[in-house]
Design a protein that fits this description.
This protein is mostly helical and 192 residues long. The chain has nine helices and no strands. It folds into two domains: 63 residues; 117 residues, no CATH class. Helix 1 packs across helix 2 and helix 4 packs antiparallel against helix 8. It starts with a helix and ends with a helix.
Length: 192
């Protein structure tokens, strides 16, 4: 092999490496942009960027296979009315209101097509289409667990209600949320 051929081969290898590096960097940026704070939390929990990105891509694939759908208008109205009742209940019985809020959030998730598996799986599923508010869900859940152990006061429960409200508004598409419902399966396929 002559020198020119070796230089061409080396140049091709360098170009392929640059393209591969750019692709990986772009994919990482896309995941950071999509998942926001959830990206950083997942990196921290998994112990590294590569593991976290693999986890986030698996979440995307799992949720893509689900039949996530917008709420029917009558269901949306029914859930909003029930939410008002939960908020009113908070004044007289904050602990019961948090339990009712959690139950209502579960019902909204089921109506939207999210499976009701364990809490961590629900949070992971929600993080795909609701990354801005999934941390609210985690925080409310943690406060509710502390309340069950007698370790959360009224101010903690108020914070839990604020967290629940943020998720509720996002799931039903109220103006306090992102004012839209998460993409449906058809929307996701149209993007690819």
């Amino acid at each position: 092999m002559d020198t020119t051929t070796l230089v061409i081969i080396a140049a091709v290898i360098v170009i392929v490496a640059i393209i591969a590096f750019a692709y990986v960097q772009r994919r990482s940026k896309d995941l950071r942009d999509k998942f926001g704070p959830e990206y950083g939390r997942t990196v921290e929990e998994s112990g590294g960027r590569l593991k976290a990105e693999s986890e986030l891509r698996q979440r995307e694939k799992r949720v893509e296979a689900l039949d996530i759908r917008p709420l029917a208008p009558e269901d949306r109205t029914k859930f909003i009315e029930r939410w008002r009742g939960v908020q009113a209940q908070f004044v007289d019985d904050p602990g019961a209101a948090i339990a009712a809020a959690d139950k209502l959030l579960g019902e909204v998730m089921v109506a939207r097509g999210y499976p009701m598996s364990d809490f961590d799986q629900r949070a992971a599923d929600l993080s795909v289409d609701h990354p801005e508010v999934v941390e609210h869900y985690r925080a409310a859940h943690e406060i509710a667990q502390r309340h069950e152990r007698g370790q959360a006061g009224t101010e903690d429960l108020r914070q839990a209600m604020v967290h629940c409200k943020a998720l509720f508004e996002d799931l039903v598409g109220l103006p306090g949320g992102r004012d839209r419902q998460a993409p449906t399966q058809e929307d996701r396929h149209a993007r690819h």
